C-alpha cells in the first residue's frame, strides 16, 4: 500500500493487487494477471514473521506444500505445477539488486534467500515464475514495526523494483546485442 502511494519512475505503470493466502486462488489469479497486463516484470511481496530484513528470493520451488491455506485447503499433489521443474530461478540477478540497493544507504537491510518457505509465498512465486519463464521476483518483508515502518519498507521496495527493472533492461540489451551478431 505504501509503494502504491510512492509510485515508481514515470515510465513504469504500477498495478498493485492483494493476493489471498489461498492455493486455488493463486492458481487462477496469477495466470489471469499475466494475461491481462503482459508485464515486463511481476514483483510479489509477502510478509514473513521470521524476517528481520528485506529479503530478495532467488527462486521458487514446485514441491513440498503441506500447510493448509486460509480456506483449510492443501493441494493433494503438494506441488504447484505437476510435471514442472523442481525449482525455477528468477532471471533477475538478485545479488546485483541487493548490492545496488544496499549501496543506496537506505536505513533498511537487504539480504538474499534461496528458500521462500514452501507455503503460499513460495507457491505464488513458483506459479508466477512458471507462467513468466522467470520474469518474476519475490520480496519478503518483516511485519510492520519489526523493525521497519511502512514508509521505510515502501521506499525500500521502490528502490528494489527500480533496480530490478534496470537490471532486467540491461540484461535484455545484452541478449539483443548477442542475437544481432
Automatic annotation (TrEMBL):
It catalyses: Release of an N-terminal pyroglutamyl group from a polypeptide, the second amino acid generally not being Pro. Keywords: Cytoplasm, Hydrolase, Protease, Thiol protease. Its main location: cytoplasm. It is found in: Cytoplasm. GO terms for molecular function: pyroglutamyl-peptidase activity. The active site is at 57, 121. One of its GO terms (cellular component) is cytosol. PANTHER family: PROTEASE FAMILY C15 PYROGLUTAMYL-PEPTIDASE I-RELATED, PYROGLUTAMYL-PEPTIDASE 1. This is Pyroglutamyl-peptidase I. It comes from Zapornia atra. The lineage of its organism: Eukaryota, Metazoa, Chordata, Craniata, Vertebrata. The gene is Pgpep1_0.
Amino acid at each position: 500500500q505504501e509503494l502504491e502511494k510512492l509510485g515508481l519512475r514515470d515510465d513504469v505503470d504500477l498495478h498493485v493487487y492483494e493476493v489471498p493466502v489461498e492455493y486455488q486462488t493463486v492458481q487462477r489469479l496469477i495466470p489471469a494477471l499475466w494475461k491481462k497486463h503482459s508485464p515486463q516484470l511481476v514483483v510479489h511481496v509477502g510478509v514473513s514473521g521470521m524476517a528481520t530484513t528485506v529479503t530478495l528470493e532467488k527462486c521458487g520451488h514446485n514441491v513440498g506444500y503441506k500447510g493448509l491455506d486460509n480456506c483449510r485447503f492443501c493441494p493433494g499433489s503438494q506441488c504447484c505445477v505437476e510435471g514442472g521443474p523442481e525449482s525455477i530461478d528468477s532471471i533477475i540477478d538478485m545479488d546485483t539488486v541487493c548490492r545496488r540497493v544496499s549501496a543506496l544507504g537506505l536505513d533498511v537491510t537487504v539480504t538474499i534467500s534461496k528458500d521462500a518457505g514452501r507455503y503460499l509465498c513460495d507457491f505464488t512465486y513458483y506459479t508466477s515464475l512458471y507462467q513468466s519463464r522467470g520474469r518474476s521476483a519475490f520480496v519478503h518483508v518483516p511485519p510492520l514495526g519489526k523493525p521497519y515502518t511502512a514508509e521505510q519498507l515502501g521506499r525500500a521496495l521502490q528502490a528494489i523494483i527500480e533496480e530490478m527493472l534496470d537490471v532486467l533492461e540491461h540484461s535484455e540489451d545484452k541478449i539483443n546485442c548477442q542475437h544481432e551478431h
